[in-house]
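REVIEWER CHECKLIST
Item 1: Sequence provided? yes
Item 2: Single chain? yes
Item 3: Sequence as submitted:
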Amino acid sequence: MARIIATSLPARATAVTLTTALVAAAAAGLGAAPASAAAPYGAACGAPQTLVVGPAAVSGPNDLQTLLRSLCPGDVLQLAPGTYTIGTPGTANPVIRPGRADAPIQVTALNPADPPLIRGSLSLGTPNAEIRKGRDNAVYESNPSYWWLSHLRIQGTVSNRPGLRIEGGAGWRVTDSEIFGAAQTGSLSNVQLDGQGAFPQGFVFAGNCVHGAGRPGGSGEKWHNIYVGFPGNKHTSGAITGNVVFDHPDGSGIKLGHGGQRGARGPWGVTVSGNTIVGGSKQITLHGDVRKLKVDGNLLGNSSFKFRSGTTAVHVHMVSKKAGSSITGNYAFGVKTFVKYDRTAKVKVGKRQLGPAPAFATGGSGGFPASFDPGCSAYGASSVAGFGA
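Item 4: Structure as written out by the authors:
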């Protein structure tokens, strides 16, 4: 039975109190168990818990961050419908424990048909390091390994910061969620995936809807919906699959690369497959020293950025190493050419298909909740079989 827990805690609080709203929810049929505290960061973890939390319980600007810090391997945090806030300008990433392969930490909706809205900038993992020192000079982990996020709506509202940023980690997952807001905050992306050393490994970003990137007067190059920028090596790996990505007029739906310099180390070992990416400057960009990337089965269309040869679905730019990347078996529409690449490009371009624009779903038949942007469900189903989400 789920525990009904309210959390309006200072960082080292050891007890919680049921709020009136949560008691009412329990009486309405959620089921009430004795309230108990999650483990403050640095404390020993007990048995895994299922925690059910509503917006009133974490209404302070840093309450949700504090709750995330308290989660232990095997814990499940279920967020009731409503609006939540995480992070304020200038705050650091929450220090979090990693989950385990046999005991992931799960953050999800209490009701997947009515997912919670998280506003702010949800950032898991510490930039440039898997560990960092706290004010007390103790070393704290901030490691998103085996964190599983699902059935969430994440709206970026912090200036120049993505709605979702994940740094490093192994085995993390983001599924069945909506992420948006970058066009309003000026962030380079809605989703930013970073790492270092041998990480990330084995990540999954699947079944999500990401939309609304760019800024007025943008160049067509810099503002993306999903920016995969970690410097890869032979150990890094992950999959971006089955997502709906749209509305990125000043950049790419998915960019795989790091920075703007020739030879800059970018992601290695990432598969981009079965996504529907439409309505932007370009749909996919590979840039720099990227290796062992696989781009296949995607539905790509309606690009607006014009090279000398016209619009393109995929841009391969300054990919200077011949190291096993491939682009094959994709369907593109509303573009002049399928792929544009410079003379130094070292990517295998195999079978692909240019065709007419498909018919997309209407009336919410694309499989996303009604609270998601209507474009999610509209683009979530098309008349082209075998391609896209």
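Item 5: Key structural point noted by reviewer: Confidence is low (pLDDT under 50) at residues 1-37, 128-140.
Item 6: Recommendation: ____
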